[in-house]
Design goal:
Number of strands: 0
CATH architecture: Orthogonal Bundle
CATH topology: 2-methylcitrate dehydratase PrpD
Bound molecules: iron/sulfur cluster
Number of domains: 1
Strand content: under 5%
CATH class: Mainly Alpha
Distance between the termini: 48 Å
Order of helices and strands: HHHHHHHHHHHHH
Structural class: mainly alpha
Length: about 290
Amino acid sequence: MRVTTFQELQDVCLKNNKKIYEVMMSSEAESGENTEYHTRLQATQSLLAMQRAIKSGLKSKEPSISGMSGGDCAKLQKHYRKNQSLFTPTLRKIMTYALATSEENVRMGTIVACPTAGSCGIVPSVIISYAQDNKISQDELINALITAGVIGKIVAQKLSLAGAVGGCQAECGVASAMASGALTQMRGGNVIQVINSVGLALKNILGLTCDPVCGLVEIPCIKRNAFLAIHAVTASELAMADIVSVIPTDEVVDAMAQTAQLMSPLLKESAKGGLAKTKTAIELEKGVNG
Ligand code: SF4
């Protein structure tokens, strides 16, 4: 992909009056990296896997293999049946789908890394829930997923999207930015609004640590997916109101890369600090190892 920054992406889109996914598809086709047909085919296959993960996650109450997690999606669905939620039906669906996909991931069912397995619930829950509730066509949904991919790809040019390198800001944080940009596009936002939603989402999660209990992608990962899916909606909502990220999105990405370098290795997937070394986590570790 020749576009390497969000500013370049914005300029190309505005100059050619094209959407982000169109720029990406023609750029990859021109460079011989991928034909438009294959880009859409890959996105369609990913989308189908996401839908499968959600469907299966919604039905299961099974615990994870470690036994440390599972059943929260079922609890949330039960809670929503009581109609006592403050959330709109779409927001409820987003939270539910985020937990469904993440729990499905830790049960080793259908795994949809987006951009990583740990952050798998964020993009699918946001774009699929919105599409279902707003009569968005399959084509538009695929376009949104391609845009999410472009966002992740640009960030990944400056920072590895792995908790071990960048902390959870690089996994769930980037997933939230991808979801926010895709959602903003589906809502009819222009490219400036899409890119601002990315910057707004990333700004708010700088420094998010990766400290998984027992080194497993369960605690805090699963619930974090639910939180950061809603976080993506917040960023989109701000951007749709033409609220901008005063720090341009590219500079936010630079700050994120610098933050990753400054973070202690103890907080980057080593399970040697933060939540992973709390008293309860140490007790859980004994149980899991036992
Ligand atoms: S806490 Fe770490 S392992 Fe869990 S989702 Fe975030 S980056 Fe991945």
